[in-house]
């Protein structure tokens, strides 16, 4: 479980202090896929950074499986895959990097790396460099690297925002296929309401800055998800309900 209780965060700047988060409360159960949806600049990335241990909240408590986030094993997938991957390493070497850091035996590194590449249908590109891949393929490599060492939680900060529509839909299906098998507890920030609903067990809607949790929506669509669900009456009804809450809060 991820537990966030009464979390507040401020940043100092030349004009004074800006409060970004205000009393944020949420819980994510083990194995859940939860998306966070809110206005631009509402503090979504700051919230992820606090949960992952990159930043420290000013007040409140964050626990990841009962531990301080800095002591938890967190996999992080960033929005900009071009900056997060190592261009001097091959596709395979990028994926096994966290296993090398953890000093996992080479035989196990090879087994995990090849399994993940086979899972995303990129085994043929094992010895290519990441700059030889398409944007979607590079982001898949980022995801595989993040889950290679079997983290407690997977955090994803708008990872598909720079991809075109068709590539994004394909990536969502690929991600869900990996998640369905691994069932890693996942927290995913999205600015796309369709994506937020399509992926999630729950959608957390944040208010404008300073952000608090305004409402949490359960997504009761069956799994595995299919693209035709995007046009189903159930999807449309939930989408309208979330957007009404979102627009009201704006």
How would you sum up this structure, described in words?
This protein is an alpha/beta fold. It has 2 domains: 2-73 and 151-249, 3-Layer(aba) Sandwich (Rossmann fold); 81-150, no CATH class. The protein contains 8 helices and 9 strands. The strands form 2 sheets. Strands 5-6-7-3-8-9 form a 6-stranded mixed sheet, sandwiched between helices. Strands 2-1-4 form a 3-stranded antiparallel sheet, covered by helices on one side. Strand 8 and strand 9 form a beta hairpin. The model has no long low-confidence stretch (mean pLDDT 92).
Keywords:
alpha/beta, three-stranded antiparallel β-sheet, globular, 2 domains, six-stranded mixed β-sheet, 8 helices, 24% strand, single chain, 250 residues, 37% helix
